[in-house]
Each structure stands twice: as C-alpha cells, then as structure tokens.
Amino acid sequence: MPEFLIVRLYGPLASWGGIAVGQYRPAESHPSWSGVLGLVAAALGIRREDVAGQAALRESYHMATLVHTEGTLLRDYHTTQVPSATVKKRAWPFATRREELSVPRDHLNTILSSREYYCDTLATVALWPMVDDPPYSLAEIAEALRHPAFVPYLGRKSCPLALPLLPQVVEGADLYEAFSAVRFPDQEILADIPGRGDSGTLFWDSEGETGFESENTYTAPRRDVPLDRMTWQFAERDEHRAQVLVPEGVR
Amino acid sequence: MSEFIQLHMLVSYPPSNLNRDDLGKPKTARMGGAQRLRVSSQSLKRAWRESEIFQEAFDGHLGIRTKEMGWQVYRALKSGQGLADVLAENESAPVRPAIEEKKAVAWAQQIAGRFGKLKKPKDSKDDDEKVDPEKQKKESLCVEQMVHFSPAEIAAIDDLLGRLAEGGKKPEEKDLELLRAERTGVDIAMFGRMLAASPAFNCDAAVQVAHAITVHKVAVEDDYFTAVDDLNHRDEDSGAGHVGQAEFAAGLFYAYLCVNRDLLAENLDGDEELTDRGVEALVEAAAKVGPKGKQNSFASRAYASYILAERGSEQPRSLSVAFLKPVEGDDYLTAAVDELRTTRQNMEKVYGACADGCVEMNAATGEGSLDEVLAFVTGDHA
After folding, report:
1. What is the pTM of this model?
2. Average pLDDT for residues B40-67, to the nearest whole number?
3. Going by DSSP bridges, is the β-strand pair A24-25/A108-129 parallel, antiparallel, or unpaired?
4. What is the ipTM of this complex?
5. Which residues of chain A have pLDDT under 70?
6. Interchain pair A159, B210: CB under 8 A
7. CB contacts < 8 Å between A and B, how many?
C-alpha cells in the first residue's frame, strides 16, 4: 500500500510566487512545487547552493494540494532605498545597512516593487515518492519538519507558519484515502477562517487516479519546477486541478 | 535541527501612519475576514537595523569607522609596526622593515583610495595661511567619507603591509582586490542579502520577521486639515492657504519574529559572543523601536506592551491564530494577552510541546522585565 506524507499549511499571509519579472512580484493562491520543495529542503537542511541535493528532492516526490480556502489577494506597495550605482561601485560591499544609507541624501534612490500575498489561505499538502529509492523516507522528512534545520515559511520569509505542520505519514490506495486517513486536531483553532466549507480545490501532478470524485479536470502548465536556486530558473510542469469534496478528517 | 528563538509582541500605536502604501494610506491586510492595520516586515526591519541600539551594540565588535585609514597605514609602513598597534596607539616594536617616506605615502594612498575618494589637501597657494606640511600629508591620505573596517579587514590590510614591506614593491591590482573580501555585518547576518550579480556576497537571513497585524478590526480614518498662511492678514480674504487630507489609524499590533540561532552563529563565523549580542540587540530594538513614518505629524513612538519569548528546536509557528477572531471590547490589551496565552496553551495541548521554554513581560501589569527576556534569549544553549 502506498504511503503519503500529509502536512497542513496555514499562516495569516502566504506568497507562492508566480512568474516575476521586474517590479511586479505576483503570487498565486495555491502552493507552488518550488515553494513546498523549498520548505522541505529547508527543514532537511539542504542549502540553495546544493544543486544535487535540490535536484534529488525535485525528481523523487509527487505533490498534491487541497486548498480549503484561497483567501483574499493583498498587493503590497514596497519601496527600498538604495545608494546610486556609482556610490555602490565605490564602496561595495557595505558592512551594515546603516552604512549603506549613510551616503549624502542625493546619492540615494528608491526602487519600487509591487508584491502580492494571499490573506487567510489554508491548504493541506500531500507528498509521496515518485521513485523506488527516494533520498529520504517520508518518516525522515516528517521528523525534519518537526525539528527543522532552517525555518519553514509560506513562499516568502515574511510569511511564517501560524500552526504546526503536524506531518503525518499515512497509507492509502490513492490520494482520497490518504486525505481521509489523516486527522488535524486544530479545527477549533481554525474555526474563524472565513470561507471554509465542504468543497475545495485539488491540485496534483501525477497521472494516476486520485480517488476523488470530480466532474471536470482542468490541466494547465505552471512554471514552478526549480532548476537552479542560485540563478533562479524554473521549468514548466503540468498541473491538474478539480473541484472536490473535502474529506471529513481535513475539513 | 536548529535552535529557534521566537518573539511574540503586542505593541500599541496611537493614531499614526507608520507604513504607507502608494496612495499614502496606512497599509492594511485581512485576517479572519476582517480588515486590519499592517506594518510590513521590511518596514520593521529597516527601523531596527537603522536604530541606535543596533549601532551601539556592534560598534566595537564591527571594527572601526574612520576616514583616516590611509594615514594609519602610512604610519604602519613608515614605522614597521603592526597596523592594529598603530590604530590602538600602542608603543610596540617594529615587526617588519620600515618603508621610506615617499613610498609609504604613495602605497598608503593607493590602499586608502580603494575605500573611498581621497581628499584633496589644501594648497598653500590658495590661501594666505601657511599650511602645515604634516597636516597636508595627513589630509592627502584621508578619504572623503567614513569607511567601515571590520577586524578581519584590518588583519587583511596588515597582512598586505607585511608582504609589501618584505617585497619592497608597490601593491599590485590583485593585492588591493583582497581588501574587498568578506566583511559580513551583524545586520546582514540577521536579515540576509541577495545579489544576483555577485552571489559570493549572498547571505541567507537568520531572522524571520512577520508583517505586524492588528489584533482588532480597523477602519482607516481621514483627517481633513487646513493650513493658514502666516502672512495672510485677512485684508483680502481669510481662507486657508492649503487644504489637504491625511489618513491614519491607531491599533494594537501582534508582531512576531523568529531567530534561527544556529544559522546566525554560522553567518557570524561561529562567534558565540557576537551572536548573543546580536540576539540581544535585535530583541531590544524590536521592543523599543518602531517605524518612523510621519513622526512629525503623529509622534507615535511606542514600546512593546507585552512580550512572550520562546526557545526550542520544534518547528517555529506564530500565534496569529489567537487573533483570527478580531479582539473586541474596551480593553484590547488585556483581551489580547489572554487570547495569546490561551492559544499557546491550546496549541500545546493538541500538538504537544511547541518550545522548550518561555518567558513573559507585561508592561501593563508590571510583570516580568525586558532584562529577563534578554537573559532568557541569550541564556545557555543546548
């Protein structure tokens, strides 16, 4: 019987980045493969520059996400003060931010960006091996999530988790059985999240049956497969989605 | 597994506009479906790292800030003494061959020139006053702006001076490049640095800061204001010289930050003492310093009213769920402290322990103290 690792992602703000070029930094309403992979890698202590370690994770697991409520979009207007290019060239690198900004006022410029977040979003994520000999067992990943090496977050570092992930390894013939087998004891704590109901959106990346009953499945490409964390390059994958009934245990 | 230090704070700001959006309005967010006031994590971090508390805490440890490094390098070359001794004004014995005057000036200028634009010394021709040649020489060895030198960098310069003195030849381009090597400041170790162009200088932030969000619903208010021209003597009209509108709101914020102490120590090359001093300065700044937006209009300085600090290796989590349901009533602070405590207890009940220990400070009831919190966050480590 296949095994699944299931965690719950909740924080007041989440920012699963979309394609970001220049000053517009969009977010999507459901977790990205790069974001969840980054969270797992951080827990395991696999660094950004560890290209092989990152690739091994990327190529060894499937992900499915059940979004209970996608929340509301927040667009944050962001300004950053930076010294002019000439000052920077001359004095780089600066020891402190204070020093960086201690140049005469007319040598300081402002960079604008617009960053998106989602408020009040709640999702449950399942991971399972894609290959016979994955680099980490699901139990090992679960233990790392309970005692992480680096702090896990929801897409952007300023978006901390506001609940324990409560990783659970469960057996099930398919995703539906796996999601039905877990229990989250925090229903009371989350009672005030608006928009939660019986229905949710399931996103998955494998070809097999999910076990969920759904009438329409929609498939779209999503560019969230991290190729290189240092050069920030991403590849596309096919992501399937369907409106489903949320199993009792995770509702 | 790493050790995490988590800080949960309640900070009350009077009417203010600390952190504005593109329309000049205070930033907001929705939580639990209700509109809240928000101060972005970037805004908080900027206020802390620019604060005097940060500066004072690290001044000694971060080396020295000076315009006179070139002059000190010249003195070291001329006397053959170690650079650190010259800087400390120690009467020490020479450690290498002394360099003759002309070369010492030229090499010191070359080195100083890498850190900033050299000053143009005053010429006696420009002025009737007689210029002291020693003073003129010193000036020619100084740069125009303050430059920060870390202990590691001072050691690197000293190392170069040794090689120059032994070889007797002027510094090459690649010798001078060495001076720009590693110099990670404490604030960079905490808040990180990301540079696509020079990844060698990247540093992963050891401190995570959440956006601060009010524990209660907030309606942003408009202040319609007029300003009368002081020179309007009502001879012709008595109207206002300017009318405008300013938006503001008051709120009790929940602020959260998490320090990965292991990563911070690593970013600081394993310097435990500096790591503790960093954590201490961060917590003190977080408790006492807020964003300065529109201070002249609102004077909204505030200290944290309540702090809960936790330590442990369990997965960090904020306690924002305590305020998913907006706090109501006529005593937000007491209600918010109660909610925070209850949520923490309930979370421990359903999930098991979320930290190894915690301390509290409550300025409303006079319980606990910031000193106790500081002692806790820098106490013995597992």
Report:
1. 0.80
2. 81
3. parallel
4. 0.89
5. 88-96
6. yes
7. 176
